[in-house]
C-alpha cells in the first residue's frame, strides 16, 4: 500500500510526478471553475490526501479554470417624456417599472413635477440581454411605456 499525496494547487505535471513518486497513476483529467484555486492548477483530487490505497491506484484530478465570469445587463439611458398637461399641474408620484422576460421590477419611485421633464433614467439593470419595456405609472395610473435594450457587461 501507499499514501495519497496532496496534489491540490499543483500543475498537471507536478501532480503526475507526485503521484508517480508514491507509485500511483494519474487518471482522468477534467476541468471546473474554482474561486479558490488558480487557473491550470489542481482544484479537486479523487482520492483524499493521506488515504491508504494499493500501489498502482489511479487518482483523477480536476484542473481549475479559475473563477467563473459573471455578467450584468445594463441599458442605455431612457428619456421619459413629460406626462403633465400644464406647468401648474400638482407634483405626482411616479413609479418606473421594468418589464423583461415575463417579470416586472420597480426601477424607481419618485415624486416629480412638470419642470422635472424630460426625465432621464440611467443604468437600468436588467436580468438578461433581452429587450424590455419601462412602464411609467403616474399616481398609480399606467401611462406610456418605453422600449429598452440591454448590453452584457462583465462584472
The end-to-end distance, rounded to whole angstroms, is 48 Å
Strand order of the largest sheet: 9-8-12-13
Query: What does the overall shape look like?
Result: rod-shaped
- What structural class do you assign from the helix and strand content? mainly beta
Q: What is the string of SSEs from the N terminus onward?
A: EHEEEEEEEEEEEEE
Largest sheet: 4 strands, antiparallel
Portion of residues in helices?
A: under 10%
The whole-number mean of residue pLDDT values reads 96
**Spans of at least 5 consecutive residues with low confidence:** none
Q: Determine the number of helices (DSSP H or I, runs of at least 4 residues).
A: 1
Radius of gyration, in angstroms, nearest whole number: 29 Å
Beta-strand segment tally? 14
Strand content: over 45%
Describe how the helices and strands are arranged.
Elements: E1 2-3, H1 12-21, E2 25-32, E3 42-45, E4 52-53, E5 58-64, E6 71-75, E7 78-80, E8 92-100, E9 103-112, E10 119-121, E11 125-126, E12 132-138, E13 141-148, E14 150-154
What can you tell me about this protein's structure?
The chain has 155 residues and is mainly beta. Helix content is 6%, strand content 48%. It has 1 helix and 14 strands; from the N terminus they run βαβββββββββββββ. It has one helix spanning 12-21, and strands at residues 2-3, 25-32, 42-45, 52-53, 58-64, 71-75, 78-80, 92-100, 103-112, 119-121, 125-126, 132-138, 141-148, 150-154. The chain has a 4-stranded antiparallel sheet with strand order 9-8-12-13, with no helix packed on it. Strand 12 (132-138) and strand 13 form a beta hairpin. The longest helix is centred in the first third of the chain and has 10 residues, at 12-21. The radius of gyration is 29 Å and the shape is rod-shaped.
Amino acid at each position: 500500500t501507499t499514501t495519497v499525496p496532496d496534489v491540490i494547487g499543483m500543475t498537471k505535471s507536478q501532480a503526475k510526478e507526485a503521484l508517480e513518486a508514491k507509485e500511483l497513476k494519474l487518471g482522468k483529467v477534467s476541468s471546473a471553475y474554482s474561486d479558490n484555486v488558480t487557473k491550470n492548477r489542481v482544484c479537486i483530487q479523487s482520492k483524499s490526501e493521506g488515504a491508504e490505497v494499493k500501489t498502482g491506484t489511479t487518482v483523477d484530478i480536476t484542473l481549475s479554470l479559475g473563477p467563473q465570469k459573471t455578467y450584468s445587463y445594463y441599458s442605455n439611458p431612457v428619456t421619459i417624456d413629460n406626462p403633465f398637461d400644464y406647468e401648474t399641474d400638482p407634483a405626482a408620484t411616479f413609479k418606473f417599472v421594468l418589464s423583461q422576460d415575463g417579470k416586472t421590477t420597480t426601477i424607481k419611485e419618485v415624486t416629480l413635477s412638470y419642470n422635472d421633464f424630460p426625465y432621464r433614467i440611467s443604468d437600468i439593470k436588467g436580468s438578461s440581454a433581452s429587450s424590455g419595456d419601462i412602464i411609467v405609472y403616474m399616481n398609480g395610473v399606467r401611462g406610456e411605456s418605453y422600449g429598452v435594450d440591454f448590453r452584457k457587461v462583465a462584472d
